[in-house]
Design brief:
four-stranded antiparallel sheet; 8 helices; binds magnesium ion; six-stranded mixed sheet; binds adenosine-5'-diphosphate; Rossmann fold; 27% strand
Length: 257
């Protein structure tokens, strides 16, 4: 069964008298374990799409079914619990808490979950610590567990953000341009890490990018243009190339922003 099913999703923004259709009739089905890139030029709707997939924003039209649950049927409280328990985010600005160590940052989602469930129902402190250390090891940062974010590099900070996103074993991990603030070598390493975790842990990754190196590592590439899907290819290098050259004639050495 599809982990995520979008039917006729539209998101309208009013700008004065005119309307912007940031998303315009999106039909998309995503299976568990996919490693999917959403690509397209600036303004094509990538961020709007990820915000809607992450329940941070609601579509003006259409239906989202997550793992059999129709989000339309959930009230505000249920929706926020759903987001907390099942969906994780990796942001381009990492968003680590500066006064917490690497380990404490990774523990945070589990601590929040335990608080929300109330005393006795959540995991113990010892379990939380063990799970965090396991994820920190998976992203190759065991020797940095007690460091603060300011003491590690940008690439390492993004690794911590990935560990934090995965620690609660979410249904999907969403990442809006996760490598935008990294040099291309580090960006490649972060994508390799995400793909490795995708394969080993079976986590479903959906990320947006307009970085060609990042795009080439995706297994499936959905290309947006003016809020519509203009291509959906299961990748090989040539699929990545054709998706990229489909973006308004952008050439391979240029990045749009
Ligand atoms: P991308 O992430 O691909 O650059 P976005 O999803 O940010 O694209 O934007 C898609 C379209 O929706 C753009 O035309 C943008 O100007 C518009 N848009 C996005 N957010 C808002 C908003 N909060 N209010 C009005 N228009 C918006
Ligand atoms: Mg964007």
């Amino acid at each position: 069964m599809a982990v995520l099913q979008l039917s006729k999703i539209a998101r309208l923004y009013k700008k004065g008298d005119s309307e912007v259709r940031a998303l315009d009739g999106i039909d998309l089905s995503i299976e568990a374990g996919e490693f999917l890139a959403i690509v397209g030029p600036s303004g094509s709707g990538k961020t709007t799409m990820l915000n809607i997939l992450g329940c941070l924003d609601s579509p003006t039209e259409g239906r989202i079914v997550y793992d059999g649950t129709d989000l339309h049927g959930l009230d505000e409280k249920a929706l926020s619990a759903y987001r907390r328990d099942r969906i994780s985010f990796v942001f381009q600005s990492y968003n680590l808490i500066p006064v917490l160590t690497v380990r404490e940052n990774v523990e945070l989602p589990l601590v929040i979950e335990a608080r929300a469930k109330g005393k006795g129902a959540g995991r113990s402190d010892a379990d939380i610590k063990a799970l965090a250390l396991e994820m920190i090891e998976a992203v190759g940062l065991s020797d940095k567990a007690n460091r603060f974010p300011r003491e590690i590099s940008g690439g390492q900070e993004q690794r911590v953000a990935i560990a934090r996103a995965l620690v609660k074993k979410p249904l999907v991990v969403l990442a809006d341009e996760p490598t935008a603030n990294l040099d291309s070598k580090t960006a490649g390493e972060i994508l390799d890490l995400m793909r490795d975790i995708n394969e080993k842990k079976g986590a479903t990754f959906i990320f947006s990018t307009h970085d060609r190196l990042v795009m080439e590592r995706a297994r499936r590439i959905v290309t947006l243009h003016d809020g519509k899907i203009v291509s959906d290819t299961t990748s090989s290098h040539s699929a990545a190339n054709s998706a990229f050259s489909g973006i308004g004639g952008t050439n391979s050495s240029k990045r749009s922003s």
